[in-house]
User: Fold this.
Amino acid sequence: MSKKEILNTDKAPAAIGPYNQAVKADKTLYVSGQIPLIPETMELINTGVADEAHQVLKNIGEILKNAGYGYEDVVKTSIFLSSMDYFATINEVYAGYFTENQPARETVAVKTLPKEVNIEISVIAWKA
Assistant:
């Protein structure tokens, strides 16, 4: 029987609440929702939704890398947007990170997100 393993890296933003960046259980990695924070300064990117999406996906990439995974191991993403007006822009950015065998996903618009950001993404990754 395996146990869960808590994973955190200083190359991604520190948690802003009572949670960890990622938890690994067996071969599955659960990555907490990431917002467009710069890890070194914990400042928000606010230069447009494309820049915000790039920062979020870079943060996710660092968490995946720290755990020994990559974007190709992601099986599920959940995207939360402050407005569906950003859907096309987010898709363009997202496609640059998930280039083959894209994961399952949902994208939903919500009333508000932490720190009033426009985007938050969480992922689940798995590898044999």
Summary: The beta strands are 4-7, 22-25, 28-34, 74-81, 104-109, 119-126. Residues 60 and 104 are 16 Å apart (CA to CA). DSSP finds two helices and six strands in the chain.
